[in-house]
């Protein structure tokens, strides 16, 4: 079943997301954000990890992902950067009957954890888990003749690799499909001219490139840490 991502779960959320709005407003938003029981368990368990809990997409992001995937009536999807599986649960659950999510993750430990959550949610039959470098996995899909064979892609992995992932996903996703990219505000660093580390500069370069890319219709949505929604023309 589904319920709200209520304030009782707020401790399991990234402080970076909560800081974007007054706490009372964010708790109201969570109370109106649908979240499945298995997804809530995944998020709460991930929050207990000694590191990496801030790598999860936020509940409201995942709710939006579900709406986007369902709106497309998607059957084939890709996720680059699965971590413990929280966003993958939303995507896999929203796929049409017989649909498959190719889930790319470079950490064997994280992917093993994610597979457990897929089984808990009853969506493991919809997930094709791929361990290894995502660039190689996506190249393999292209080499197998799957250009234009996917409806949806979600990129949430190493930021300095975004440009390569984006180009690969644009080839794999059909015209009319969506490529969605996370962390485009990068905790506010992209808008802060005093920040000039390599990861922030890479995210700025990606944002500028996607904004100007005439192969897509583009919107940078201020949900979670900022999501670029790219409709493939």
From TrEMBL:
- Entry's Gene Ontology molecular function annotations: O-methyltransferase activity; S-adenosylmethionine-dependent methyltransferase activity
Q: Which PROSITE patterns match?
A: SAM_OMT_I
Query: Which InterPro entries does UniProt cross-reference here?
Result: Cation-dep_OMT (IPR050362), SAM-dependent_MTases_sf (IPR029063), SAM_O-MeTrfase (IPR002935)
Q: Which UniProt keywords apply?
A: Methyltransferase, S-adenosyl-L-methionine, Transferase
The record's Gene Ontology biological-process terms are: methylation
Q: Which SUPFAM superfamilies match?
A: S-adenosyl-L-methionine-dependent methyltransferases
The record's listing under PANTHER family reads: CAFFEOYL-COA O-METHYLTRANSFERASE 3-RELATED, O-METHYLTRANSFERASE-RELATED
In the record, the note on similarity to other proteins reads:
Belongs to the class I-like SAM-binding methyltransferase superfamily. Cation-dependent O-methyltransferase family.
What is the protein named? Caffeoyl-CoA O-methyltransferase
Q: What is the originating organism of this protein?
A: Prasinoderma singulare
